[in-house]
Amino acid sequence: MRLLSQSLAITQNVEYSNTIKASKSILLTCTYNVITKDRCVIADMNFCAHVNEVLIEYSYEQGCTCPLMGILDSDEKAIIKYPKNPQGILALISEFFSNKIAEIAGLSIPTWGITTIDENTHFNQQPRKKYTHYYGCCFYSKYLPKLAPASARTIKQVTNRTEFCKMILIDALVFNTDRHSTNVLISFQKNQHPNMFSIDFTHALGGPDNDIETLAIGDYESPIFWRENYDFYTLLLADKSSVTKDVLLSESSYL
């Protein structure tokens, strides 16, 4: 965001401090236009044209966006967030933007993309009209079986502990204020070493309540960011072999 603001300031010959609002507005407008199209094929991004079937409708207690589990036309299961979820369209914007940043940085995340729910999506043999509020262009992440929430015990078993610093830095970069143990999952696949996956960036970019002011009030320096993520980061910091000053400096320089 700061780089975008600085670039705008240079090209428009205006003060950097006056371009925060403009840059956030551009980001929201561009991403909103991408996500709200009925069908959208975007270069350099995983894309599945359609959700064939919805298997599970999760409650608010299971996830604040009340996500769905469905089957894509690739026959893969996925967790799906739809435009009219309880947190609104900005939740999808946060997911889209933050997952792209995480992907570029090499953080382990489930395969993700944009897909569509429409009148041809099967909903457990119930009347389709009941489910029209799910219709639209949605965000999905591939379902990973045999998962456990991160804990002091499971964290010690993962093979990608070197990503601890990267996770903290990316959360800071996108101002994600919802990093806790159930948003970091450990995959225990047969004949594979346990791996850690970061999920759920709904509360990035200031969260569902964000607006063009959000990223102008402190970003990663904000006490809100550290307070909300404190418990999980403390868990990571306990692994002193993986979270060191040198690794943080190296990763931050790369990012």
* Rounded radius of gyration (Å): 19 Å
Structural class computed from helices and strand pairing: alpha+beta
Q: What average pLDDT do the residues reach? A: 76
Give unreliable regions as ranges: 1-28, 34-45
The major sheet is characterized as: 5 strands, antiparallel
Strand order of the largest sheet: 1-2-3-5-4
The helix count comes to: 7
What's the order of the H and E elements?
A: HHEEEHEEEHHEEHH
Gross geometry: globular
What portion of residues belong to β-strands? 15-25%
Distance linking N and C termini: 13 Å
Beta-strand segment tally? 8
Could you characterize what this model shows?
- The protein is α+β, with helices and mostly antiparallel strands.
- The chain is built from seven helices and eight strands.
- Helix 1 crosses helix 2 and helix 3 crosses helix 5.
- The N terminus is likely disordered.
